[in-house]
Please model this.
Amino acid sequence: MENRFHFLLPHDLAFSGVYQDYLRFALDRQLRVPETWASFVRVFRSDSDDADEGWRCEYWGKMMRGACLCYRATGDEALFALLWDTVAEMLSVQRADGRFSTYSQRCQLRGWDLWGRKYVMTGLVHFLEICGEEALRGQILSALIRHADAIVASVGPGPGQKNITETSSFWGGVNSCSILEPIMALYGLTGEKRYLAFAEYILSTGGCRDGNLIKTALENKIPPYEYPEVKAYETMSFFEGVLAYYQATGQDEYLRAVMNFFDAVARTDLTIIGCCGCTDELFDHSAVRQTEPNRKIMQETCVSVTWMRLCARLLMLTGDGRYSGFIERTGYNALYGAVNLYGLAQYDTSKKEYLPGLPFDSYSPLTDSRRGVGIGGLKRFSFGGFYGCCACIASAGVALLPLTAVMQAPDGVCVNALFSGKAVFRTAEGKRVILSAESGYPQEGRMSIAFEPEEEPAAFTLRLRIPDGLTEAEILVNGQRMRHPAPEKGYVSLKRAFAAGDTVEIRGTLPLIRETIGSSVAFRRGPLVLARDEEKEPAFAIQAPVTKDKMVYRMLQPEKGEMIRILLEQQDGWPPVLLTDYASCGKRWDRRKNRVTVWMKKDGEPEKP
Model:
């Protein structure tokens, strides 16, 4: 099944504003660091994961995927050159039997071996998408085929093979079964039926030895926190593969299973900041439990990014704008909140010591807690150094926000988010059009777009998504307010001929919204969830502000690192409450006062100053 929307080409995008800031952070602090890539390849030169059945094997491919997506969003040639070099290095460590693995032949097919092999495939497939050099492409594809054939030969239901759900003692083997997605990608590249047959074998297992995840999703009777396997990250990753199988075959039951799963997660396990897992990294009815105080790890960054990836795949496939709203909510809050902006040290819970900070944090608190409480997926290297799973995956999310903001549609362009920057798309006839956008979003609910077609007039359809939370929205074409049709799948569609200098503007209001769950209250404005920060606010408290039915607040000038700053007035002489964007809060976790809270309790009264 063909996607309705597609990413634009790497050199056809140039973002400014908040997207550019975070892309630059990922490039400077992580992706353009040769020593990091060298360490990730070096673990494949020995049996690095034998002793502890570890997952050092995932780091290279996981970060390669994010790096390739960031290249698509920036066209940064220094990054591309580094990726070229590290791919060449990775090809040099392929074993004689075809495997890219950090496990010896004796220890293979246990622990996280297939998970790591999945990520090598994922990284190489993503590099193929941006690499135009045919000789290198041929080498990569040949290596992928040898790697996959080694898996197909040793894993399966036949004599001498090992059932895929038994290749890991962790999480019912769903981690191993998530190799379904890159297997389907390789099938798409080669058309080889043995890869489709292997994918169908994985599907026949249901993805988990503890129960059939696909059948459970199709029946749609229980929530994800009651599924046979409740590890959020790996289960989402498996359903990405199920979706890839549907796209290759068109078998509707698999799309139905994915959409049932997605809707169930959104209904019962997605929190206000767009992540899951308030009990460690597990589905646990987080939509309700998110208000509970929690001083332990919760809401893993790996979950945030994998959720964004699933949203992006469904957006591209279905053309339904609602998935963009989910991407924004997660990206602006859970993901941007995980950026280790100041490079602060992070805590190794196993050895109870602080380590040099990675570029991204691993866990996101919600109620009276702090950041920097642990390094997710931490593994040390025998040759010195360490890394973590969440740090590896985060750059993919950083890229997905801008990449899904403006996309190619068959008949024109789709603008999913209000952004600043330039993009080049093509009409149905293949004519290039430059789109220039200027926006104050997410602080303001406005964006102005100007068009510059290479041949005018250029006829195409502009699909414009009205952001969630934008009220009193109006659309102006060349300064004239238009009576637009009701949005379809979240979009207002403008089909017309555009000439150079033509403009389209969207503007509306972003009101402060109060949300409640039981006796807890939180605030958000547009895509931004707001929080209180102990370092910023002397009167920090987790009691909810005492406000009138109509909230009275003032917009203040944001300080460094903030997107928004609001002073919420209270009644009866109580001091005002300072609310700032969640992503900016708690970033100074090395300070004595470092607690943050999104959810505040309505019970009780705040202490007077």
